[in-house]
Structures are given as structure tokens and as C-alpha cells.
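Handout, section B. The chain below has 156 residues.
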Amino acid sequence: MIDDIKNQYNAYVCFISNENRMVPLWKQRASKYSDGMIIWDYHVILIVKEKDSEQKINVYDLDTTLPFPCDFSTYTQESFKLLNIPKYYRKFRIIPSETYLRVFASNRSHMIKEDGTWYSPPPTYPPISTSDSVNNLQTFINMTENLDSNDFDVTL
């Protein structure tokens, strides 16, 4: 089954952030506003494209109020509204899903306040780790430079 999926789809993990760690997205559940706008320090989505089609591209965003999955065109139009203020310009680090699964790790330490309490309740699933790392999240959301590695694509 997994081989069938790999043969039919290309999947990419997209990290969205910037040097200021302030990126606006709309249609987000965590928002307090009717338009769903929120400023994230970073955000992560999954982009899945059918190999035999240029049109069939879906976005999987666990925090969106849009359909799940959502077609790429609708997602980008609704979630990435123009906010022409330089400190909010978004950058995107897009990596193949296989790379993400092989090298990404987060122990969720970025979600803990100085007093030891959580900023928000953590996910119910265990933290993600690899044999090489328990926490390399900052490497993925660092948008100040392109990484000198075959594991990472160029920051856009």
C-alpha cells in the first residue's frame, strides 16, 4: 500500500516562517478573529501532488478551518492574503516528505514557558525524534539562510 502511494503521489513538507518569526495566515482555528487571521512564529503544512496531474495538488493543514484536505489554489488564496508589511513577509522551506520523516525531530521544548507550563496543550501523539536527534526544529524554521545540505531544498 505504501509503495502504491509513493508511486501515485509526491508529498512535500512546507515550513512557513521568516527572520522575525511572524507570519500571518488566515482561516486558522487558533485565531480569535472572524476571518481566522493569526500570526504564527512558524507553521507547517503538507503538500501532496498526484504524479500524473499538474492540477491535483492538495494541502493538509491541521490548523485550518478550510476543507481537509484543501486544493492548493483555494488554500493559497484563502490562507496567504496579501499583507504588504515587510516584517510579515513569508518564506517557505519545502522538503520532500521522505527527508522530513528521516531527519526531522522536535522535543516540543519551544512550546514550554519559562515556568514549565505549556503555551498551548501539546499534541497527544509522542514527540518526533530520530536516531540522530531529539530536537532540530530550529534548523527547519531558520529562514535566514539556505542550508548547505542535500537534505534541504532552497528557502523561497
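Note. Helices lie at 2-8, 72-79, 97-103, 137-141. Compare this with the example in section A.
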